[in-house]
Design a protein that fits this description.
By secondary structure, this protein is of the alpha+beta class. The chain contains 4 helices and 8 strands, in the order E-H-E-E-H-E-E-H-E-E-H-E. Bound molecules: the ligand Cc1ncc(C[n+]2csc(CCO)c2C)c(N)n1. GO terms for molecular function: thiamine binding.
Length: 198
Protein backbone atom coordinates (compact mmCIF):
# COMPACT_ATOMS: atom_id res chain seq x y z
CA UNK A 1 0.00 0.00 0.00
CA UNK A 2 1.26 3.49 -0.82
CA UNK A 3 2.19 5.54 2.24
CA UNK A 4 2.13 8.83 0.35
CA UNK A 5 -0.52 11.40 1.05
CA UNK A 6 -2.97 11.80 -1.80
CA UNK A 7 -3.40 15.26 -3.31
CA UNK A 8 -7.19 15.33 -3.17
CA UNK A 9 -9.09 16.46 -0.09
CA UNK A 10 -10.73 13.11 0.34
CA UNK A 11 -12.51 12.59 3.64
CA UNK A 12 -12.87 9.29 5.42
CA UNK A 13 -14.32 7.55 8.42
CA UNK A 14 -13.50 4.33 10.15
CA UNK A 15 -16.48 3.28 12.26
CA UNK A 16 -18.18 0.42 14.03
CA UNK A 17 -21.65 -0.26 15.37
CA UNK A 18 -22.29 -2.48 18.36
CA UNK A 19 -25.90 -3.59 18.76
CA UNK A 20 -26.56 -5.04 22.24
CA UNK A 21 -28.58 -7.93 20.92
CA UNK A 22 -28.20 -11.66 20.23
CA UNK A 23 -29.02 -10.72 16.63
CA UNK A 24 -26.00 -8.42 16.35
CA UNK A 25 -24.72 -10.05 13.16
CA UNK A 26 -28.07 -9.50 11.39
CA UNK A 27 -28.19 -5.91 12.65
CA UNK A 28 -24.66 -5.11 11.47
CA UNK A 29 -24.85 -6.88 8.12
CA UNK A 30 -28.44 -5.74 7.55
CA UNK A 31 -27.66 -2.06 8.21
CA UNK A 32 -24.71 -2.13 5.82
CA UNK A 33 -26.83 -3.85 3.17
CA UNK A 34 -29.79 -1.46 3.56
CA UNK A 35 -27.55 1.61 3.27
CA UNK A 36 -26.80 3.04 -0.18
CA UNK A 37 -23.00 3.18 -0.28
CA UNK A 38 -22.65 3.85 -4.01
CA UNK A 39 -21.12 7.32 -3.43
CA UNK A 40 -18.23 6.13 -1.24
CA UNK A 41 -15.29 3.75 -1.31
CA UNK A 42 -16.10 1.13 1.34
CA UNK A 43 -14.35 -1.73 3.09
CA UNK A 44 -15.67 -3.81 5.99
CA UNK A 45 -13.52 -6.09 8.11
CA UNK A 46 -13.96 -7.84 11.46
CA UNK A 47 -13.30 -4.63 13.43
CA UNK A 48 -14.64 -1.64 11.50
CA UNK A 49 -16.05 -0.36 8.23
CA UNK A 50 -14.06 2.33 6.44
CA UNK A 51 -15.74 4.74 4.03
CA UNK A 52 -13.91 7.34 1.94
CA UNK A 53 -15.16 10.10 -0.32
CA UNK A 54 -16.74 13.56 -0.12
CA UNK A 55 -17.61 14.80 3.39
CA UNK A 56 -21.37 14.85 2.76
CA UNK A 57 -21.37 11.22 1.58
CA UNK A 58 -19.14 10.01 4.40
CA UNK A 59 -21.55 11.54 6.93
CA UNK A 60 -24.62 10.33 5.05
CA UNK A 61 -23.46 6.71 5.05
CA UNK A 62 -22.29 6.62 8.70
CA UNK A 63 -25.54 8.29 9.83
CA UNK A 64 -27.66 5.84 7.83
CA UNK A 65 -25.91 2.69 9.14
CA UNK A 66 -26.32 3.91 12.74
CA UNK A 67 -29.94 4.96 12.20
CA UNK A 68 -30.92 1.68 10.52
CA UNK A 69 -30.10 -0.06 13.80
CA UNK A 70 -31.15 2.68 16.25
CA UNK A 71 -34.63 3.01 14.77
CA UNK A 72 -35.30 -0.69 15.44
CA UNK A 73 -35.21 0.16 19.16
CA UNK A 74 -32.19 -1.97 20.01
CA UNK A 75 -29.53 -0.46 22.28
CA UNK A 76 -26.66 0.36 19.92
CA UNK A 77 -23.26 1.98 20.35
CA UNK A 78 -21.36 3.67 17.52
CA UNK A 79 -17.69 4.61 17.35
CA UNK A 80 -16.22 6.68 14.57
CA UNK A 81 -13.02 8.46 13.58
CA UNK A 82 -13.53 11.03 10.82
CA UNK A 83 -10.46 12.42 9.08
CA UNK A 84 -9.58 14.77 6.25
CA UNK A 85 -6.26 16.19 5.10
CA UNK A 86 -3.65 13.48 5.08
CA UNK A 87 -5.20 10.12 4.52
CA UNK A 88 -1.88 8.47 3.80
CA UNK A 89 -3.06 6.84 0.61
CA UNK A 90 -5.19 7.59 -2.42
CA UNK A 91 -7.68 4.73 -2.24
CA UNK A 92 -11.12 6.02 -3.17
CA UNK A 93 -9.95 9.13 -5.02
CA UNK A 94 -12.46 8.30 -7.78
CA UNK A 95 -15.23 9.14 -5.26
CA UNK A 96 -14.19 12.80 -5.02
CA UNK A 97 -15.74 15.70 -6.90
CA UNK A 98 -19.36 16.34 -7.72
CA UNK A 99 -20.74 12.81 -7.73
CA UNK A 100 -24.33 13.49 -6.72
CA UNK A 101 -26.57 14.07 -3.74
CA UNK A 102 -26.48 12.03 -0.54
CA UNK A 103 -28.28 8.79 -1.35
CA UNK A 104 -29.78 7.87 2.00
CA UNK A 105 -33.03 9.20 3.42
CA UNK A 106 -34.06 8.62 7.03
CA UNK A 107 -33.86 12.39 7.56
CA UNK A 108 -37.26 12.54 9.26
CA UNK A 109 -36.64 9.67 11.67
CA UNK A 110 -37.01 11.06 15.18
CA UNK A 111 -34.59 9.42 17.57
CA UNK A 112 -32.81 10.73 20.63
CA UNK A 113 -29.12 9.98 20.95
CA UNK A 114 -26.28 10.69 23.37
CA UNK A 115 -22.71 11.19 22.26
CA UNK A 116 -19.25 12.45 23.08
CA UNK A 117 -17.05 14.04 20.47
CA UNK A 118 -13.48 15.29 20.31
CA UNK A 119 -12.13 17.57 17.61
CA UNK A 120 -8.46 17.71 16.62
CA UNK A 121 -7.79 20.62 14.22
CA UNK A 122 -4.18 20.13 13.20
CA UNK A 123 -1.84 22.44 11.35
CA UNK A 124 -3.89 25.65 11.49
CA UNK A 125 -2.81 27.24 14.79
CA UNK A 126 -5.23 28.49 17.50
CA UNK A 127 -6.64 25.02 17.92
CA UNK A 128 -8.44 25.78 21.21
CA UNK A 129 -10.27 28.75 19.62
CA UNK A 130 -11.42 26.45 16.82
CA UNK A 131 -12.60 23.80 19.29
CA UNK A 132 -14.61 26.30 21.41
CA UNK A 133 -16.12 27.87 18.29
CA UNK A 134 -17.19 24.48 16.97
CA UNK A 135 -18.69 23.37 20.30
CA UNK A 136 -20.87 26.50 20.10
CA UNK A 137 -22.01 25.40 16.64
CA UNK A 138 -23.49 22.24 18.15
CA UNK A 139 -25.48 24.39 20.62
CA UNK A 140 -26.83 26.44 17.70
CA UNK A 141 -28.13 23.18 16.18
CA UNK A 142 -30.30 22.68 19.27
CA UNK A 143 -28.06 20.01 20.74
CA UNK A 144 -27.57 19.94 24.51
CA UNK A 145 -23.87 20.36 25.20
CA UNK A 146 -21.93 19.71 28.40
CA UNK A 147 -18.29 19.37 29.37
CA UNK A 148 -16.55 16.05 29.78
CA UNK A 149 -12.96 14.98 30.22
CA UNK A 150 -11.16 14.81 26.85
CA UNK A 151 -14.44 15.29 24.95
CA UNK A 152 -17.71 17.23 24.82
CA UNK A 153 -20.95 15.50 25.67
CA UNK A 154 -23.90 15.91 23.31
CA UNK A 155 -27.54 15.00 23.62
CA UNK A 156 -30.42 15.48 21.21
CA UNK A 157 -32.04 14.41 17.96
CA UNK A 158 -29.88 12.07 15.93
CA UNK A 159 -30.34 13.84 12.58
CA UNK A 160 -29.58 17.26 14.14
CA UNK A 161 -26.56 15.64 15.79
CA UNK A 162 -25.10 14.30 12.52
CA UNK A 163 -25.91 17.58 10.72
CA UNK A 164 -24.09 19.50 13.45
CA UNK A 165 -21.09 17.18 13.44
CA UNK A 166 -20.84 17.43 9.64
CA UNK A 167 -20.92 21.25 9.91
CA UNK A 168 -18.25 21.19 12.63
CA UNK A 169 -16.02 18.99 10.47
CA UNK A 170 -16.55 21.13 7.32
CA UNK A 171 -16.04 24.46 9.08
CA UNK A 172 -12.89 23.26 10.85
CA UNK A 173 -11.50 22.15 7.51
CA UNK A 174 -12.53 25.41 5.77
CA UNK A 175 -11.04 27.63 8.47
CA UNK A 176 -7.49 26.45 7.89
CA UNK A 177 -6.86 23.13 9.59
CA UNK A 178 -4.66 21.18 7.18
CA UNK A 179 -5.58 17.86 8.81
CA UNK A 180 -8.74 17.52 10.85
CA UNK A 181 -9.61 14.48 12.95
CA UNK A 182 -12.87 14.09 14.86
CA UNK A 183 -13.77 11.15 17.06
CA UNK A 184 -17.39 10.40 17.95
CA UNK A 185 -18.87 7.84 20.29
CA UNK A 186 -22.64 7.57 20.33
CA UNK A 187 -25.38 5.51 21.88
CA UNK A 188 -29.12 5.12 21.34
CA UNK A 189 -31.82 3.30 23.29
CA UNK A 190 -29.56 2.86 26.31
CA UNK A 191 -31.42 1.53 29.35
CA UNK A 192 -29.41 3.94 31.51
CA UNK A 193 -31.09 6.83 29.70
CA UNK A 194 -34.43 6.16 31.40
CA UNK A 195 -34.21 8.12 34.65
CA UNK A 196 -30.41 8.30 34.19
CA UNK A 197 -29.88 5.96 37.16
CA UNK A 198 -28.68 2.52 36.05
C1 LIG B 1 -20.04 -0.78 10.85
C2 LIG B 1 -19.29 -1.99 11.35
N1 LIG B 1 -18.44 -2.61 10.51
C3 LIG B 1 -17.77 -3.72 10.90
C4 LIG B 1 -17.94 -4.22 12.15
C5 LIG B 1 -17.18 -5.46 12.59
N2 LIG B 1 -18.10 -6.59 12.77
C6 LIG B 1 -18.36 -7.08 14.01
S1 LIG B 1 -19.49 -8.34 13.94
C7 LIG B 1 -19.65 -8.21 12.25
C8 LIG B 1 -20.60 -9.09 11.48
C9 LIG B 1 -20.10 -10.50 11.38
O1 LIG B 1 -19.01 -10.56 10.55
C10 LIG B 1 -18.80 -7.23 11.76
C11 LIG B 1 -18.70 -6.92 10.31
C12 LIG B 1 -18.83 -3.53 13.04
N3 LIG B 1 -19.09 -3.94 14.32
N4 LIG B 1 -19.48 -2.44 12.60
Amino acid sequence: MSQQCGNSRIAGCSFSVHPMSDEFVEHIKGSLKETDTSNVWIDTDEVTTTVRGEIEHVFDVTRAVYLQIARSGVHVAFNATYSIGCPGDSEGDQYTGDIGDPANGLRDVKQNTNAKFSLYPMGGGDYMDVIYREIDRMKEKGIEVSAAHYATKLSGDVNAMFEGLEDVFCETEKSGSSHTVMTVTMSANSPSEKGKRS
